[in-house]
Amino acid sequence: MSNKQSKQSFLGGAAILAAAVAIVKVIGFFYKIPLNNILGGTGKTYFDTAYKIYNFLLTFSTAGLPLAISKLTSQAHAQGRENQKRKIFRTAIWLFLILGLIGSTVMFTQPQILAQFLNNSLAAQAIQALAPAVFCVCLLACMRGYTQGQENMTPTAISQVLEALCKLGIGLPLAWYVLRLGMGEESVAAGAIVGVTAGTVISLAFLTVYLLIHQNRAEFLDTPDSSRSIIRQILVIGIPITLSNSAMSIINIVDTKIVMGRLQDGLHLSEETAALLNGQYSMAMDMPNMVASFVYPVTMSLIPFAAAALARRDHAGADRIISSAFRIIALLALPAGVGLSVLSTPIMTLVLPSQPTDALAAGPHLRILGIALIFICIMILTNAILQTYGKEALPIFTVIVGGVVKVVMNYVLVGNPDISIHGAPISTLCCYLVIAGLNLFFVWKYSPQKPRYLCLFAKPILASVLMGGAAWAVYGLSHGLLGGSMSDYLSNAVATMLGIGAGVIVYGILVLALGLLRADDVRNIRGGDKIIRLLRLK
């Protein structure tokens, strides 16, 4: 395969995965918002508690190992070693089978112990309902790594979309049905979790059938490595990545335990009341998480170009690409964060019509978490840049430092009766501020051409502040004029949409007037030349 063909294949695969991520996140939006309305604050905590344990076991068993399988399979594929590819898959599938069985067994047989460890005993039912998903996703991870190693991203993309559709089509109706039966919040959360489990089962069935149909049955003469050698290679590549990705999962579990514990032990609240307060915070956290998830396709599309430029020792080219990535993230993250912050309570009221009390309680959390979103997006981008520079260990270090800040601050603030659960978003903001600040320093330190952060961020900050002021003013004026002429919810909804619309228009004008978007920023995306001509970018 020629270099040009390889590049096209890689970029095409990246585009497929980026499109799948975008589709999954859109589906996730239409899943999470109605789900929060069904669960309420208390049910949301049970759901999140189960999901954090699931994510930890999942990250620990599948974070780095599928990448190792993908890399080894890719090497064998490039060398034409078909028997080696088959041996890698057969060996890896047993490894993942064992890991999946262990994780699922722990969640299914010990849900009460896991729930009590997080000071949330009523989450046991949701934890148990999610247990089979660990087994399925372990096998899914192996299969996805194998197909991606053969430069085929389509099966992974389809399986991810299937998984998201099942959460939406099965979990949401089931949670609503359980609620209609009059069962408790813990049962409603378990019903929602069943959709996640069903999604992994159906995705696993799809990939299994796909691999059977597309199996290469021809005879090859290459001699594969031993199973022991293959396992050793998988572990050598995969363990460092696993440790990196597991750090935040571990911190999140410890953080949940501390928040729930301090609400109960420090403030002497009941477990149900603590769950309600923590659930309201989790509802607010969903908004920045959903927005931040769209940053991954941006980094996925831009960073490979930077890696290629560095490989050619084209430091000026790499600097242009990385500066462009910073500008795009600033253009997306800053207005999104400011917008969520200034319209925090109106937005939560808009998306939680069935839970007005929870919406009002979550609003102040989102005011702080909107600003945290900016640093979350910077963290995602700078992690990718540091990995591109070959500094994979630094993101592990910065995440651990930020996590320690988060845990310590939660212990102090949440246990303070004057602050209570409002300490959780404050600690989250400080956590990502520390991580992003350290990452920015290390990117500056190791970049051949030092990025000029003041030039990159000054104008987007100014534009975002002006946009936020316009959105807030239009919302306030509209809400005042509409009050009394329609229901409270409808007047808030109309005023919120008008405020958002005004913010978008003002920001769009400022982007063009201040020259925040350049031709280089959009040239490499599909239809970029048309955008350049339309907006007359330089």
Describe the structure.
- The protein has 538 residues and is mainly α.
- It has helices at 3-62, 65-78, 82-109, 111-117, 124-149, 154-180, 185-213, 227-266, 271-292, 295-311, 315-342, 344-351, 356-388, 393-414, 423-446, 453-482, 488-513, 519-522, 528-535.
- It has 19 helices and no strands.
- The chain is globular.
Task: Describe the secondary structure blueprint for this structure.
Elements: H1 3-62, H2 65-78, H3 82-109, H4 111-117, H5 124-149, H6 154-180, H7 185-213, H8 227-266, H9 271-292, H10 295-311, H11 315-342, H12 344-351, H13 356-388, H14 393-414, H15 423-446, H16 453-482, H17 488-513, H18 519-522, H19 528-535
Helix pairs in contact: 1-3, 1-5, 1-6, 1-7, 1-8, 1-9, 1-10, 2-3, 2-5, 2-8, 3-5, 3-8, 4-5, 5-7, 6-7, 8-9, 8-14, 9-11, 9-13, 10-11, 10-13, 11-13, 11-16, 12-13, 12-17, 13-15, 14-15, 16-17
Distance between the termini: 36 Å
- Mean pLDDT level: 85
Low-confidence stretches: 1-11
Return Rg in Å: 24 Å
**Quick one: overall form?**
globular
Find the structural class using helix and strand composition: mainly alpha
Count of helical segments? 19
Q: Biggest sheet: strands, sense, closure?
A: none
- What portion of residues is helical? over 70%
H/E series: HHHHHHHHHHHHHHHHHHH
Assess the beta-strand content as a share of residues.
Answer: under 5%
Number of β-strand runs: 0
